[in-house]
Write a structure and sequence with these properties.
12 helices, alpha/beta, three-stranded mixed beta sheet, 19% strand
């Protein structure tokens, strides 16, 4: 299958979009004729084109990278479809959307299909939403299921003779949570304690502990639902590298879900790794399913609390083993939790 000559990255300056754009721009298999475009937020009431973002300065030696001012949540479907069609992109990759209003991801997918974009990679860099299914408690996940149904339904319709042309080929890349998200303190699973904590909580064994016995500062590691629950995580740099490899693989079959994994482990193992690799005290705290649901009842619209309930419920689809993944099959070495901790968390 021929490689694309024009790729649009939605959100190419964001947490995932930037490493993906970098990998696409610098990959050894990048076609010399390839033109890359990334969306950026429009400057309000400005007649001038937006300046080249500083975050992309490392890519200035690489030509054929342009900017498209576009506000995805507020742009109506017909306008978005026209924008995609007019620019005649061969491939659109969506790398943004976690904070977008409900319905935005469906609108983007619909626009890609209506515009006749040859290939589309939706913003599905996360869980196995086929297994998570509807009704998980996280409405964003329900929309991810709907996007999959939309893409598959379009292909099935073409097979039945419905519609015209070749349709849009799609690829979904399931990555698990971002490694950076797993250790983000706002997520609540791993939290640094910079001084001797005054908060008391029950540890893994039910006893109180502060995670900072020597006063040097320790960590709290919290299990969601159960200490044996497992989670898959992949770093954004590795995701960008893998997706670029997929895009530039002429033999890759599209219209499928591909899995990658930096690491898969249980919360107990996560706590052990943090303690071992930092040399600091780790307080182990269990947030069981009852606690997580009560916390969500206090703030039913809180997206992070909804996320925690999904992971705490032990649902299928939040983890898979590295064996059998696309990345493992290609022999790629992705960063695991142990290496991430060594690089990013403070040691004694």
């Amino acid at each position: 299958m021929p490689l694309p000559s024009s790729i649009l990255i939605l959100g190419g300056t964001g947490q995932l979009g930037l490493p993906l754009l970098t990998s696409l721009a610098t990959h050894p298999s990048r076609p010399s004729s390839l033109h890359l475009t990334t969306t950026i937020r429009p400057q309000p009431s400005s007649p001038h084109p937006p300046p080249f973002p500083q975050s992309l300065s490392h890519l200035t030696p690489h030509s054929k990278i342009s900017l498209l001012p576009l506000d995805l949540p507020s742009t109506p479907l017909p306008t978005l479809t026209s924008t995609f069609r007019t620019n005649a992109y061969d491939l659109i990759i969506s790398c943004t959307g976690m904070t977008f209003p409900s319905g935005t991801q469906t609108k983007i997918a619909r626009a890609a299909l209506d515009a006749g974009i040859p290939k589309y990679i939706p913003w599905q860099f996360g869980l196995d939403y086929d297994k998570v299914g509807r009704g998980s408690g996280q409405d964003l996940f329900d929309e991810q299921v709907a996007v999959r149904e939309l893409l598959r339904g379009q292909r099935q319709g073409l097979k039945r003779g419905e519609g015209e042309g070749r349709g849009t080929e799609w690829m979904i890349v399931s990555t698990g949570v971002f490694m950076e998200f797993l250790f983000w303190e706002g997520w609540g699973v791993v939290e640094a304690q910079k001084k001797k904590s005054e908060q008391k909580g029950k540890g893994e064994d039910g006893e109180d502990g502060d995670g900072d016995r020597d006063g040097k500062g320790g960590y709290v590691v919290r299990a969601l639902g159960n200490w044996d629950h497992r989670v898959t995580a992949t770093g954004v740099e590795d995701i960008g590298r893998c997706v670029a490899g997929m895009v530039y693989d002429e033999d890759l079959e599209w219209n499928q879900v591909l899995f990658i994994a930096g690491d898969t482990l249980g919360f107990k193992e996560l706590a052990d790794v943090v303690e071992r690799e930092t040399g600091r005290d780790v307080k182990r705290e269990l947030w069981d399913e009852e606690y997580l649901r009560k916390e969500l009842e206090k703030e039913p619209g809180d997206g992070l609390r909804k996320y925690r309930v999904v992971f705490g419920s032990g649902k299928e689809g939040v983890s898979w083993e590295r064996e059998g993944t696309w990345s493992e099959g290609k022999g790629l070495k992705l960063m695991g939790v142990e290496e991430w901790v060594r690089r990013n968390l403070k040691r004694v």
